[in-house]
Write a structure and sequence with these properties.
The chain has about 400 residues and is α+β, with helices and mostly antiparallel strands. Among the domains are: about 130 residues, NusA, N-terminal domain (N Utilization Substance Protein A, Chain:P, domain 4), CATH 3.30.1480; about 60 residues, Beta Barrel (OB fold (Dihydrolipoamide Acetyltransferase, E2P)); about 80 residues, K homology (KH) domain (GMP Synthetase, Chain A, domain 3), CATH 3.30.300.20. The protein contains 13 helices and 15 strands. Helix 2 runs antiparallel to helix 4. The longest helix has 28 residues. The N and C termini lie far apart (about 165 Å).
């Protein structure tokens, strides 16, 4: 008997090590299995059984459980309910609503069916415990960057391995034109963990703005040390991203810190994002200055904002107009999202007015009266020239 108990407890320890579960969780599952097996062989279907295992010796005791009711009129299930009067005979301290545990005779052998039932209960409990453990572990990691490898390509969905669990990369969370293959290693942003009947469902993303923040936090020590702060991010995944940063301590260049010496830090991030373009701009509490910074690399000339409409009108030179708007309006669209302001780009009138003024001056010069003195000088020169021309001699007859 001692050897059987020792073998049993050894098996419990092995399961704990293999599944990474706490011993208490395994013992609870086994107790439920033993109670179900005992009721199947030695009890009745409506009876409630509870088993207790000594975690040191491994010995098990089975109890029949009764719920304590106040009067006979309240009893609906005689197999699992007792009146307070009858319960007091067994335990004087019991109260209405409490439980009474009555020890059951120990049975050394359980039948084949009971053993099968116990096995099924243990397997089910272990699965539930694993699911709960995985759910709790990854729920705490929501909003973080995780290393992943492509496990399976299921139609347009990509299944990635995260270690103890798999995550799903739906098409909406995949970077446009990015190709995936089994075994590929990449970084993903953990968006959401939800509980389902099949276990935890883990949704990951490659397009979320959180991926940009996480990558910068891992590559820029100043951000993890909180001397540089990411204030906002706007992104069109696979194409372009704008990120606004600010230093929380004097003497630190936030943009330079993110770029790194010779661009090493930002290049490491770009390599992870398939060379997605990234604009790093300086955040400013002054809305006008921040908007002008956000439109980088375009140079702006002037700006006027309307707090009522929460819109800004930005004037740029003709040479910067297309750069400020961006291809398909991307630059101004990302700047608007980054700052939270609606932005309208207009061509600066300064240069056009100068050109108009020059044109008008030329037109006036063309329409002006002729300079008579110059005309007289010209005629005088012509007359002198005519006098100097020798007369032709007539031929002798």
């Amino acid at each position: 008997m001692s050897n059987t108990i020792n073998s049993f407890m050894s098996a419990i320890d092995e399961i704990c090590d293999e599944k990474g579960l706490k011993k208490e969780v395994i013992l609870e599952a086994v107790e439920a299995a033993l109670a179900a097996a005992y009721r199947k062989d030695y009890g009745k279907p409506k009876q409630v059984m509870k088993a207790k295992i000594d975690p040191i010796t491994g010995s098990a005791d089975v109890f029949r459980v009764y719920e304590v009711m106040e009067t006979d009129e309240e009893i609906e299930e005689t197999e699992r309910q007792l009146t307070l009067t009858d319960a007091k005979k067994l335990d004087k301290k019991v109260e209405v609503g409490g439980e009474i545990l009555i020890p059951m005779p120990k049975e050394e052998e359980f039948g084949r069916i009971a053993a099968q039932t116990a096995k099924q209960v243990i397997i089910q409990r272990l699965r539930e415990a694993e699911r709960d453990m995985i759910f709790a572990e990854y729920k705490d990691k929501e909003g973080q960057i995780l290393n992943a490898s492509v496990q399976q390509i299921d139609g347009r969905n990509i299944v990635v391995s995260l270690g103890k669990a798999n995550g799903i990369l739906f098409p909406s969370d995949q970077i446009r034109d990015e190709k995936y293959y089994v075994g590929q290693r990449l970084k993903v942003f953990l968006k959401e963990v939800s509980s389902t009947v099949r276990g935890p469902q883990i949704l990951v993303s490659r397009t979320d703005e959180g991926l940009i923040k996480g990558l910068f936090e891992s590559e820029v020590p100043e951000i993890s040390a909180e001397t540089v702060e990411i204030k906002s991010v706007s992104r069109e995944a696979g194409s372009r991203t704008k990120i606004a940063v600010i230093a929380t301590e004097e003497g630190i260049d936030p943009v330079g810190s993110c770029v790194g010496q010779r661009g090493t830090r930002v290049q490491a991030i770009l390599a992870e994002l398939a060379d997605e373009k990234i604009d790093i701009v300086l955040w400013d509490e002054d809305a006008e200055q921040f908007i002008m910074n956000a439109l980088s690399p375009a140079k702006t000339e002037s700006i006027s904002i309307s707090s009522k409409d929460h819109k800004a009108t930005v004037s740029v030179g003709k040479e910067n107009l297309s750069l400020a708007i961006g291809k398909g309006g991307q630059n101004v669209r990302l700047a608007s999202k980054l700052t939270g302001w609606g932005i309208d780009i207009v061509e600066s009138e300064a240069k056009s007015e100068k050109d108009d003024g020059k044109k008008k001056k030329d037109d006036l010069d063309d329409d002006a009266e002729p300079d008579l003195s110059k005309i007289e000088d010209k005629n005088r020169d012509a007359a002198v020239k005519e006098k100097k021309v020798p007369k032709s001699k007539s031929k002798k007859k």
